[in-house]
Amino acid sequence: MHTPKSLKAGSGIATLKQFLLSLIATSVSIALTFGTAAVIDGKKKQKEKREMVMMVMYDMYNTLKEVAEADSMIRYSMDLQRQLAEDTTRFDELKYTITASLPIMVEYTGTTERIFSSNIETIHTVSNVLFTENVACFYQIRQNYKTNVCDSLLDEGQKIVYNTSAKEVLDLSLLNYAIMTGGILADMQHLYNQCKQMMDISDKEVEAYLLKRKQMEGDKSENEKKRIKIIDEVKQLQDRIDKAKGRLR
After folding, report:
1. d(Cα 198, Cα 241) in Å, to the nearest integer?
2. Cα 196 to Cα 198: distance, rounded to the nearest angstrom
3. Displacement of CA 164 from its chain's centroid (Å)
4. Does the pTM exceed 0.70?
């Protein structure tokens, strides 16, 4: 038997429809696959961006805290100088307190700065030129602070540590350091606030991140204790070995 021509024609139309439906289904599947991948990739980039930004904000926050403490210490040292000037008989009581109160050992980690400044990919991840410029400016101010205040005060403080003259301690001029520290603190705070606004970061988010970092640092502290314990145990074992070897001689 032969298939009627009408059925053959209909069969061709059905095949074409099937082909078109298959093509559409394949196209939709590809679009969904790439679309989903693009969404996932976009979310991943946003997460990386947020993590980098929060890491930088945390570093800036810690620096602000340290400079604020330095500012208070310089003011306190100046007040001690005032007390000494008003009563030089208190020299032996106050001279070491004045020196010890100078913020000569203020330290900060440069790890985040190096990651942020040296990796062009990191800057691309953040993708905000103004934020990048503000952070770079913040770090430059921090470096100037270390050089012109911390390092300089270290030199000044070392000069008077062993001095026995009230005049020499009182001649230590802290006014310029106080003015510089106050100005630097204000500039840093301004840049920090601008960065929060640019990246739409709330104080609550910063506080939550600070809490998270404190917990991480707590874990590091526990690990450090375990490491020290292991080292002590190994040293004790070695000591027992050495004593046993000594008895063999």
Report:
1. 62
2. 6
3. 42
4. no
Take residue 26 and report the two structure tokens written for it.
């394949």
CB 137: neighbour CB atoms within 10 A? 14
pLDDT in tens, 190-223: 999 999 988 888 888 888 888 887 777 665 566 6
* Alpha-carbon distances, residue 146 vs 21, 56, 126 (angstroms): 69, 19, 27
Degrees, nearest 5: CA angle 221-115-123? 135
- Identify which of 73, 67, 64 has the alpha carbon closest to the alpha carbon of residue 97: 73
Interhelix angle for 175-198 vs 5-86, to 10°? 160
Contacts of 178 (CB under 8 A, 6+ apart): 71, 74, 75, 78
Q: Which residue has the tokens 């003259």?
A: 165
Amino acid letter, residue 141: I
In whole angstroms, give the CA distance from residue 183 to residue 62.
17
> How far is the first Cα of the chain from the last one, in angstroms, to the nearest whole number?
112
